[in-house]
Amino acid sequence: MKDSLIALSKDALSSARDLAPIVMVITVFQVFVIREPVEGFLSLVFGAVLVVAGLTFFIFGLRVALFPIGEEIAHSLARKGSAFWLFTFAFVLGFGTTIAEPALLAVAEEAADVAVEAGMIEDDEESIASYALGLRLVVALSVGVALLLGVFRILTNWSLPLMIICGYVLVVIVTAVAPPEIVGIAYDSGGVTTSTVTVPLVTALGVGLASSLKGRNPLLDGFGLIAFASLTPILFVLAYGIITQWT
Amino acid sequence: MDLIQEALAFIWGSAKDVAPIVVFLFLFQLFVLRERIPHFGQIVVGFGFVTVGLGLFLVGLEQTLFPLGRLMAQQLTNPDFVAEVSGHVRGALRWQDFYWVYLFAASIGFATTLAEPALMAVAMKANTVSGGAIGVWGLRVAVATGVSVGVALGCFRIISGLPLQYFIAAGYLVVIVQTVMAPKTIVPIAYDSGGVTTSTVTVPLIAALGLGLAEAIPGRSPLIDGFGLVAIAALFPIISVLAYGQISVLRGKN
């Protein structure tokens, strides 16, 4: 108990240090460049305290729950030795955590607006909703496929740089044929898919898997899952843009 | 009072995000893998901390940083403001006149990345796995530097109107060349760092900056040009982390 309290207060100190740069940037710009007074100073201070406390709790939870359970499942999967369940687990984890991602929801709605603006879909509620839902499904599917590919790579020991570079070459090729309106959204969707809860879990999964398989180095083979999860959404969304253009 | 209610709403929101994942993990471990969950109590308490922590973190950001950051992005990209500080008339602004925007983009990109919880997680893992060779702080500063350059360059792209694809393609070329030259052990982590930078803290602020710029500059559509900032911000950390690896090797030699 006492040890946890000491660990927590250490975490709180480093959280405060992590947030200090943001406070500094905002203060400096507010005071020297914009030169306007800030309203509600007290609530700002209180908000900052909440941010520090939140970050501290999150990092603590990361250490005692997210990392251990991710690694434990990776070890169990390796012990079971069933490639089928490993791939199923990776796919469901990717698909399930992405479909409900709030950042993705926001991007999908904006993308539907762009599609209306560009005359790609009708300007009625039904086609907007179905376009946005379609986009979310496509992105979630792409993240599922990404984790599946990433786990496949750890098993087969294929070269990560080669796979990623081929992926990006594909992106460049598909970009050339995709409708220009979808390009910005597609590129951005690669960045929004990986949430704060998923990243630690996926990292622990990769590292756990690489360290329980013979002949794999956790540093060389354990990382890279998130790289796939930021690449495949770009490809899939570009493809979605091409396909919806025809129909 | 309102704040407490809002905090509870955010915690409830993050519980809805976390709970399905936890249930899936537990069910999978118990029924498919047929193994028990070690330290069950500790794990449940830990997930409680993750949920409450994420909720407080988000409500705090929503209370302070996001509104202030969005407001500042609006004020800095306002053509009247840019005209005033640069001394040029509104209609004849050149890309150089937006220097405050670039400076703000670079510093806010750097600062928000340092506070990104997902990046901390990856840095902690990389540190443990590399036996301390990759420093938590060093990796995070490397990523933050990349985001900083990326966001500033992304703003320049919106202002100048150059196509996004050129920047992305050029960035990937640099990544390919660096991949061949950089130490093998840093490559996977560098590739991962592109994806982790752009989540909870950074995206809302730089998205506001992109939209503000696209609205303020004649001939840009917020819907089309406002996008793409996240993509560039996710690309440059790959370059900067690979460079971090290359520099560490060089320093080791001397």
What this model shows, in words?
The complex is a heterodimer of chains A (247) and B (254). Chain A is 85% helix and 0% strand. Chain A contains 10 helices and no strands. Chain A has helices spanning 2-34, 41-80, 83-99, 102-117, 125-156, 160-177, 180-192, 198-212, 218-221, 225-246. The longest helix of chain A is centred in the first third of the chain and has 40 residues, at 41-80. The mean pLDDT of chain A is 86. Chain B is mainly alpha-helical. In chain B, 80% of the residues lie in helices and 0% in strands. Chain B is built from 12 helices and no strands. The model of chain B has no long low-confidence stretch (mean pLDDT 86).
The percent range for helix content of chain B is over 70%
- The total of helices of chain B stands at 12
The geometry of chain B reads as globular
- What's the rounded overall pLDDT mean of chain A? 86
**How many beta-strand segments of chain B?**
0
SSE map:
The complex is a heterodimer of chains A (247) and B (254).
Chain A: H1 2-34, H2 41-80, H3 83-99, H4 102-117, H5 125-156, H6 160-177, H7 180-192, H8 198-212, H9 218-221, H10 225-246
Helix pairs in contact in A: 1-2, 2-8, 3-5, 4-5, 4-7, 5-8, 5-10, 6-10, 7-10
Chain B: H1 2-32, H2 40-63, H3 65-77, H4 79-86, H5 99-114, H6 117-129, H7 136-160, H8 164-181, H9 187-197, H10 202-216, H11 222-225, H12 229-253
Output the keywords.
heterodimer, A: 247 residues, mainly alpha, 85% helix, flat, B: mainly alpha, 12 helices, 80% helix
Please provide a brief summary of the model.
The complex is a heterodimer of chains A (247) and B (254). By secondary structure, chain A is mainly α.
